[in-house]
Amino acid sequence: MPFADSGRATTGFHMLFLLASFVLAADTEDWEKSESAYLANVQQITKDFVRAGEGYFSPDGKQIIFQAEEKDTGNPFYQIFVMDLESGKYSRVSPGAGKTTCAYFRPDGKKIIFASTHLDKEAKVKYEEEYKQREEDKKSGKRRPYKWDFDPSMDIFEANVDGSHLKRLTDGHGYNAEGSYSPDGKQIVFCSKRDGNLELYIMDADGSKVRKLTNAPKCYNGGPFFSPDGKRVIFRSDRKKEDHLQLYVINIDGTGERALTDDLNWVQWGPYWYKDSKHIIYAGADHSVSGRPNYDLYWMDIDSGKKVRITYNPSADVLPVFSPDGKKLMWTSTRNGASAQLYIADFTPPKDE
Known about the structure:
mainly beta
């Protein structure tokens, strides 16, 4: 899913994002103590990849699905993997060609969806372009700003959990990605540019009966998730200031849309529901500060608007998700000072006051 101006990986945004090390001087020496109120047993769970991120739990909480760049394959873009959390064993479930993003388990655990460009005849040309750009970046010593490209060859595919029986679900012109299932598994909400704008749509799980959910042209609307009670969709949009994502919620019938955040100095994205359908977790950073803004995770009561900061590490923490029982938090981070990888911790929710 994409990053500051994107897919769920922004995505994002999609994730997911070309994070290098976002290491800043810590504003406190006891960030671990600050995090310990909410996070315990923090563990890095991916390590065999150039970069990895945007993970989601299986319905039983025993597996995760995520995107990662493999080493030494000749493909610099993300592919999709499924990992058993107890053993740590993983396997690639996407075709291995093109780009992929935004994978998700069906609520019965029998199917997965993800977005892919593996049908793009120009996929390998794009590999060469990416590697060439990386070499130029290396020589110049400059860090490229992250930019999600909304590849028009991106479509949503369904497959068995092992990647077999791949089936294309979208055929609308242009970018189709950032999909996730409704709690009953009967519908998928996703981002599409089929009408020329990046809007949200809902379709039946077999790809039929597509209907438009949002109507905010000339901006990005993406990263959607159904609430656990199936009544609302949380998402992100930069409709008020380009690339400065804010959080929104909307009823599944398209009514009741409202902004949850409205500080245009900040980028606030990657929202995900807690099991009670009343709270969310998301990533945010103040872009009005000098230097590189640092992303941390925040908890929000969407009715009162009350926010609680969850992470304090001096590196980037983004794309948080909960396990189905709400006892685990997984997110993408650069907290070990290297590339982006996935982390898991035991989660204690803040107390409402």
